Amino acid sequence: MTVWWTHSQSSKHRSSSRSQHPSLGESDFKAFHLKFRKRDKARLIPEYLDHLSRGANSYSGKTREIKIFTNQEGGYHHYMVGGARRLWDPIPYKHPSTFDTLAMDPCLKEKIIADLTSFRNDKSFYERTGRAWKRGYLLYGPPGTGKSSMVAAMANFLKYDIYDLELTQVR
Predict the structure, then answer these.
(1) 20 to 30 A from 89, CA-CA: which of 38, 47, 50, 142?
(2) Are 146 and 103 in contact (CB under 8 A)?
(3) Strand, helix or coil for residue 67
(4) At residue 156, what are phi and psi to the nearest 5 degrees?
C-alpha cells in the first residue's frame, strides 16, 4: 500500500479578546494530512494507524526541549505583546541535574523514579476515574540541600515543563 503524508502550516488570527492565553494576534496552525487509496482503507486503518500511535507514544518527549515558565513581574520573562501582558512566558530550561547525578538514598531515589514512571504511564487511569492527572511533591529544607536539583531531575526524567510560581506576584 502507498500512503502520502503532507504537512501544512498557516497563521490564524485570534479574534476573541476573552482568549485563555493573554497574547492576542497571530498563532500558528500546523497539521499533517494522510492520503491513501480507498481500496486500502479496510486494511490500512487498523494496522498503519495503530503502528503510528505506538510509535508516537514511544517517541513522545524524547527530543522535546524542556521550558520553564514564570509569573515574575518585571523580570527577564515578562514582556508586552500587542498591548497584552504575558505572565507565563517560556524560556529554555537546560539544567544538568538527573537522577544519576543526585546524591540521595538509593532506595528513596528508586521509589521516586517508580512513582514518576507509574504516574506518566497511567494517564488513562486518571481519565477513566475522573481524577485530575497531577502529581505533587513537597520539598523542604534549608538552602543548598538540593530541592531545585530534584525538581530539575524530575523535569529531565519526565520531559515535562516547569512552572515557577512567584507567590509575591499573585494578586
Answers:
(1) 142
(2) yes
(3) strand
(4) -65, -35
pTM score, whole prediction:
0.57
Please name which of 157, 83, 74 lies closest in space to residue 115, comparing C-alpha atoms: 157
Sheet holding 162-164, edge to edge: 89-92, 67-70, 162-164
By DSSP bridging, strand 162-164 and strand 67-70 are parallel
The DSSP result for 99-112, as a single string, is TTT--S-HHHHHHH
CB atoms within 10 A of CB 97: 18
Q: Is 56 helix (H, G, I), strand (E, B) or coil?
A: helix
Q: What is the pLDDT of residues 44-73, one digit of tens each?
A: 888 877 887 777 766 655 667 899 888 866
Task: Report the alpha-carbon distance of residue 134 to residue 158 in Å, rounded.
Answer: 13
